[in-house]
Structures are given as structure tokens and as C-alpha cells.
Amino acid sequence: NAGVTQTPKFQVLKTGQSMTLQCAQDMNHEYMSWYRQDPGMGLRLIHYSVGAGITDQGEVPNGYNVSRSTTEDFPLRLLSAAPSQTSVYFCASSYSLAGGRETQYFGPGTRLLVL
Amino acid sequence: QQQVKQSPQSLIVQKGGISIINCAYENTAFDYFPWYQQFPGKGPALLIAIRPDVSEKKEGRFTISFNKSAKQFSLHIMDSQPGDSATYFCAAPSFNQGGKLIFGQGTELSVKP
């Protein structure tokens, strides 16, 4: 199994541009989520999904959209990039939400720089 | 917004020493406290986790201690090695968000040879 894969690994955007960060998992996990990691801030939840067709907002959802049309894929869209969205983005998946007790498997991350 | 407070933010330990990282949490719906380890350029990965039926869990050189009354838990790394140099995150299930994990701010550990 490839686990959780993310593309691209690194991206530079100009302010106002849009882009989609791709995330896929091959473990048949129901729960998928997006985090951003910033120095001193830990991992903050952006959006999450408990199954195909079901998404919800996390702690820092503004400026981001998600959709979940299949179990495998969970793309994150930046509608109009801002310098404050410069960060490292991680996608994660787990078998279920289960009150947070399931192991979350993280992808390798996407480094985004917004100029 | 529920928080998990982690300290210290950074830690330097000599090889063979003990590394200690502490976390404090607010109310949780479930007593389950994992620690994730992240090497530079990689995604976090589960290191060790504790459930409420025990106050301590040990796996090799890694031990979690849990104090429910104080709402605190800690990670101890015995005989720290340079290969342990990484960022460590504690986490706790949220109280009012279906148990989604809330992560601490992270501790950057550097073990000097």
C-alpha cells in the first residue's frame, strides 16, 4: 500500500492565485482530514470528512474548500491565495473517527509559499 | 476553542539523557492520549498512545505517564539517542467536536552526541 499520498510536494503561488492540493489514500479509510502546520502553532485542523459526500469545517477553515466524491480522494482548494496561507499542509486518514482513538496516518506534506 | 498546551517548545538533551515533554488538556470526551513523532520533511506518525485504564504505558525507551486528576500527561524518552531528534506532538480527543484530535504546539527535540 502507498498509504497517504500528497501532490505537489512544493508549490509557489502569487497572491490571488488558486490551486488544489491533492490527497489520496489506498487504505479504504472513511475519515480524512487536512491540517496546516506553522511554527509554534502545532497542527491545526482545516477541514475533515467522515465519508464520501460528507465534509465539515475544522478550526481554521477560512480560505479553503474541500469535497469528497470518493473514499480515496480528498482535495483541498485554495480559492484566492494569501501570504497568511504560507504553510506546510498535511493530509491524514484513519479507519474511522472513533472519538479520535484511531491511528491517523499522515501524508508527506505539501509546502506552500504564497508571495 | 479547546486547547492542548505542550511544553517545552524546544529541548536539547545529551545522548543517553532523559527527554521529558509535558502536555495539559482541557475536558475530553474520551481518555485517549497519543503522541506523534515527526522527522524533518516527513509527516507525523503515531509513536505511542495511552488509554485511561492505566496511568503509565511503556514501549521500549518511550513511556507515557498520565495524571487524570491534574489533566496532564507526559512523554519520557529514556537513554535518548541522536536518532530521536524530531518534533513531538501530543494530542487529545476534543470534548465537543466528535472526538477529533486536538494537537499540542509541538516540541522540537535535539539529542546531541
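qc> The mean pLDDT of chain A is 94.
qc> done
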